[in-house]
Amino acid sequence: MTSASDPGFAVYVHWPFCASKCPYCDFNSHVRHATVDQERYLAAFKRELAIQAERAPERAVHSIFFGGGTPSLMKPETVGAIIEAISSHWNFEPGVEITLEANPTSVEAERFRGYRAAGVNRVSLGVQAMNDADLRALGRLHSADEAMRAVDIAATNFDRFSFDLIYARPGQTVEAWRDELQRAIAIGSDHLSLYQLTIEPGTWFEKLHAAGKLAIPNADLGRALWDVTQETCDAAGMPAYEISNHARPGSECRHNLVYWRYGEYAAIGPGAHGRLIIDGKRTAFSNELHPETWLQRVESEGEGVAERSSLTPEEQADEYLLMSLRLREGIDPARYAALKGRPLDNERVDFLVTHGMVARRADGHVAVTPEGFPVLDAVVADLAA
């Protein structure tokens, strides 16, 4: 098992295609009406993997995550071939977590059995809402009944599964959200990702919001929705281990913990971002966003990297702060000092402790408090200054 001091090594695989583009989504996802040539993309994934493995040899893979986009649009044979390619370059740690994101519209029992046979042992379902009116407002293609059928199929095929819900939706009340969240918890998943709706630049929701055609809860109602989220999940034994993720103890998403604990991860596919330690230097990689451009670059050059840079000590410390303060366990001041070359400003920490925004834990970590999480960006900015 990994820990805050030993985050582990992970592999991220980005499948960029979706059946439709959700109006709130700013992820690197693309709609293609023509059939995607999965064999061609599989060959490109394998080529890019080989180069990543040369840069980061002799690692033990702690987790693999198929994200998107909609990875459940991939054939199980494609997923299995990618897992096999990863295993040909690196050893797998015992109990390696292999997660695949899925949308309810693309969930079929036979397909899920195929993913399980291919090596996937955890799925994350994009449910987003549990009533049809809100699903339509969010631009989702599935109904609430379809979502619940998908959850049943996931529970039948996988020992571990999670699903996402979005709250602070237009017109949502605290009472309605509490009821929906209690129904979600009763389903029996050991992990929930609960995201507060935000208006992201470049999305269709941004255009509607700017035109006055979309209203989301104001700051006070947003805070009330946040509070009832924490209260309801805590009471059910699913506390937030990260600002937007709740799990029963021991059921946390191991892959995302590698990110938040500032571990090392290889990333392949259009728009994927990776962090590898090469010759003692932490190096950031960003791939070409556009799928066809990425594909052409991999076929001609072996990889689709658009940007590569060695991170300075200051940049590494800031990334560590930004990622690990999202976790309830917080940051290790000694690790921060080792990355940055100087310690945290104790006066700033004391100020935030006095105002109830952070706390010093018994293990020496500095962690954001429940009162500080709703203003996490401000807390991070204060400590990074």
Ranges where pLDDT stays below 50 over 5 or more residues in a row are none
Q: What is the CATH topology of the largest domain?
A: TIM Barrel
Helix share bin: 40-55%
> Quick check: average pLDDT?
94
Biggest sheet descriptor = 9 strands, mixed
Give the strand order, joined by hyphens, for the main sheet.
9-10-8-7-6-5-4-1-11
List the helices and strands and how they pair.
Elements (H helix, E strand, L loop, with lengths): L8 E7 L1 E2 L11 E2 L6 H18 L4 E9 L7 H14 L1 E12 L6 H10 L3 E7 L3 H6 L6 H14 L2 E8 L6 H13 L4 E6 L7 H7 L8 H17 L4 E3 L2 E3 L6 H7 L3 E5 L4 E6 L2 E7 L3 H11 L3 E6 L2 H12 L8 H8 L5 H9 L3 E3 L5 E3 L7 H9 L1
Parallel strand pairs: 1-4, 1-11, 2-3, 4-5, 5-6, 6-7, 7-8
Antiparallel strand pairs: 8-10, 9-10, 12-13, 13-14, 15-16
Helix pairs in contact: 1-2, 2-3, 3-5, 6-8, 11-12
Description:
- The chain is an alpha/beta fold and 385 residues long.
- It has two domains: 9-259, TIM Barrel (Alpha-Beta Barrel), CATH 3.20.20.70; 326-385, Orthogonal Bundle (Arc Repressor Mutant, subunit A).
- 40% of the residues lie in helices and 23% in strands.
- It has helices at 38-55, 76-89, 109-118, 132-137, 144-157, 174-186, 204-210, 219-235, 254-260, 291-301, 313-324, 333-340, 346-354, 376-384; strands at residues 9-15, 17-18, 30-31, 60-68, 91-102, 122-128, 160-167, 191-196, 240-242, 245-247, 264-268, 273-278, 281-287, 305-310, 358-360, 366-368.
- The strands form four sheets. The chain has a nine-stranded mixed sheet with strand order 9-10-8-7-6-5-4-1-11, sandwiched between helices. The protein has a three-stranded antiparallel sheet with strand order 12-13-14, with no helix packed on it.
- The longest helix is centred in the first third of the chain and has 18 residues, at 38-55.
- The two termini are 34 Å apart.
